[in-house]
Amino acid sequence: METILSGLQQALSMEALLAVFIGSVLGLIFGAIPGLTYSLVLVLLLPLTFAMPTEAGMGLLLGCYLGGMTGGSVSAILLGIPGTPSAAATVMDGYPMARRNEAGKALGTALFVSVFGGLFSLIIMVFVASYIADVALAFGPAEIFALVLFGLSTICGLSERSLTLGLVAGVLGLMLMTIGLDPLTGVQRLTFGFTDMMQGVNLVVAMIGLFAIPQLVDTFLSKDGNKVDLGKFGKVRCTLPTWQECRQNLGLVTRCSAMGTGIGAIPGAGGPIAAFLAYAHAKRFSKNPENFGKGEIAGVAAPESANNAVTGGTLIPLLSLGIPGDPATAIMLGGLLIHGLQPGPLLFQTNLDTVYAIYAMVAISYIAIFAVQLWGIRLFVKVLAVPGEYLAASILVLCAIGAFAIRNSMFDVYMMIGMGAFGYVLKRLGIPIAPVVLGMVLGEILDTNYRTALIMSNNSHATFFESWTAMILLGLTALTIITQVVKRCRNPAIPANDETTIPNAKNADGASAH
Amino acid sequence: MNIKKTLSAFGLFAGALTLSLPATAADNYPSRPIEMTVLFGAGSSADLAARALADGLSKELGVPVPVVNRPGGGGAVGYSYVRDQPADGYHIVWNSNSISTVHHQGNLPFGYEEFDAVAQVSTEKPVLAVRENAPWQTLSEFMEEAREAPGRMKVSVSGLGSFTHIAGAAMFNAGEATMTPVPFPGNEAVLNLLGGRVDATVQLPAALVPHVKSGKVRILGVSSDSRLDLFPDAPTTIEQGVNSNMEMWRGIAVKKGTPQEAIARLDAAIKKVTESEDFQKVADNLAFSVSYLPHDQFAQVIAEDDARIAELMAQMASSN
Known about the structure:
The complex is a heterodimer.
Chain A: H1 2-11, H2 14-32, H3 38-49, H4 54-79, H5 91-99, H6 103-138, H7 141-153, H8 155-158, H9 163-176, E1 180-181, E2 188-189, H10 203-221, H11 225-228, H12 243-248, H13 250-264, H14 271-284, H15 298-321, H16 327-338, H17 347-350, H18 352-380, H19 388-407, H20 410-429, H21 434-456, H22 468-490, H23 502-513
Antiparallel strand pairs in A: 1-2
Helix pairs in contact in A: 1-18, 2-3, 2-4, 2-18, 3-4, 3-16, 4-5, 4-6, 4-15, 4-16, 4-18, 5-6, 6-13, 6-15, 6-18, 7-21, 7-22, 9-21, 10-19, 10-20, 13-14, 13-15, 14-15, 19-20
Chain B: H1 3-19, E1 35-38, H2 45-61, E2 67-69, H3 76-83, E3 91-96, H4 98-104, E4 115-124, E5 127-131, H5 139-148, E6 154-157, H6 163-174, E7 180-183, H7 188-194, E8 200-203, H8 205-213, E9 217-222, E10 248-255, H9 260-275, H10 277-286, E11 289-294, H11 295-319
Parallel strand pairs in B: 1-2, 1-3, 6-7, 6-8
Antiparallel strand pairs in B: 3-10, 4-10, 4-11, 5-8, 5-9
Helix pairs in contact in B: 2-9, 2-10, 4-11
């Protein structure tokens, strides 16, 4: 009890409160601005925390992480450009909602479920952290490979128009991620001897290029851009979701939060997988799956609750094992170490007050996020009133800055432009972008875990069938694929729902048969 | 807000920046900010160490020392960048053995010869560790079993051809045994040791601190001739008769041909910083040892290490 109080006292000190608040707001803003990401602001803030008291420094970084994860949905919904890779799945239904003049509802839902998912994962973290940490230990390369494969199988659900096009897109994404140095052996792949190419394709850079550039190009090309794409509505209304709508999805959001917490706790798996799996889950168990991709509110609620639940999940192995699961928690680990705090089993014995302070700060951060964003939504939707060309021009600048700043590399700016051109071609061909992103998100994890599992088993594929975890995940993967194929065979009319891309889809189907 | 005006303001600002860079002479070095290139992303312990050093240097030299992360290619991107800058002492790189590993792996067309050593700052001694309940109590027991069944010992390392792999290979070489290195590019090398999927791990001490302290992991050998201050109970490889003492060093280097005055000035400043209490505290928190060496001795360390790494990597390549 005393340690709890002492932890609370640390978390409620003036500096800590202020730091959590500033961090949350900065995260929200950077997450919300297309092109800029919360990873960027974490890097910028890290050196500042060295001179701060431990709790304040930690609060600043934590707030920024949680705020950024929440804010990523803003530009995903309003502009169709995800603010973080974890928000890529949110685009699919969030953006159509915004175009239907329901931006406020989509943003409101995203905010409610983000806070719900975050607090859900916090509760799990407080009460069963050690149990969840054991789950993390149970995931070796074979199990992670099976999980990633399950994630890939959701491509079926993402490619409503044509399964073939979806698979083409997924494979393109996987292929792009092989560029650079082989993470296991350091051998160059597809670098053509250029040192710059060894950096490979950065996920965030690619995401900025793939989502933002084609849209900006369209805006500039259209004769009256301000009436077409980005700034469609002169008058913007902001309606928050009703209590009824929130309650309807409570079960779904709880399941997705649990999924997010679990996947977040597995180091190396990460937020985007959780978001895509949650989206696929929502669609599969929805009463009206045909509405997905056209602005279904559950398609926003599921990935947004899952990706925020990931935040609590990743903190579990960080605090209880000292092992960061993603780049953001790696930076937080640095922030703790520099203050002489070593996360790990001993942290719970020697610095239990700090652990409680961190718990309290997560809660405080979500309260701050909720309050600020509830007000911020009204502000953010005003972006839609800005004429398209002006908005597009400023977004282009931000994208270039964002791409450069991730690794201080001009190569990444060129890569972003290249990926943008690639994305534009895909859009013209009617190839969906979401499976490309999914392929990119999962590519490296799939590659390294598959090979590491085989190295450990002396190249015996039996290793993938040796644990129950892997078996269950592989079974789910097979089930997903089979049900999709059966559904499509029975119901060949599905692609006919589509208005615009049928000729293209047919072409591509034909082309891939050669 | 007029966009054209904003743009032209930016243009003027950029112009002013370029004009403000004076023609530098070595005698008033340093007269402007010194940029420190770090070869990996922000937040890792080696990055934090670099930032602490940069902080101290900036106080010592009276100019800002901004840290710029240029990750990629196992260090190739950052090394290439610094090599392409003028040799004026305003572009320094936080280097390590990676200059040799990346070069001999074939990912960097040039080696350490393209740089002038400034000063060594720190060393980290890789350790071989096993789970608490593992049957082996000493390094020799472990090596004996590895000798009996070549390749049966699975050892997690941070990537094939990475420093931990090379250090591990050196240990097994000295123990006349072979291992199956299992590469984990992220932080999962330790996780998979704890999860029981590998027999041992070779890691830098920082990665193992919480697990050794909580007793979940035991260190069988520290690759060095002297014990770690951090874990004084952990025996070294040398004292157990395994003749391998590969250490990870880090320091500062500049492009070849940088004026001697600038190198000397930097070297003196680094010496001061490494002697400070603040830096020692950072070292304790991040689990590395402060071990300053002046530029001439550092150059020798780099050259000797390069020869050893070249030999080991050639051997590893031929055994694959």
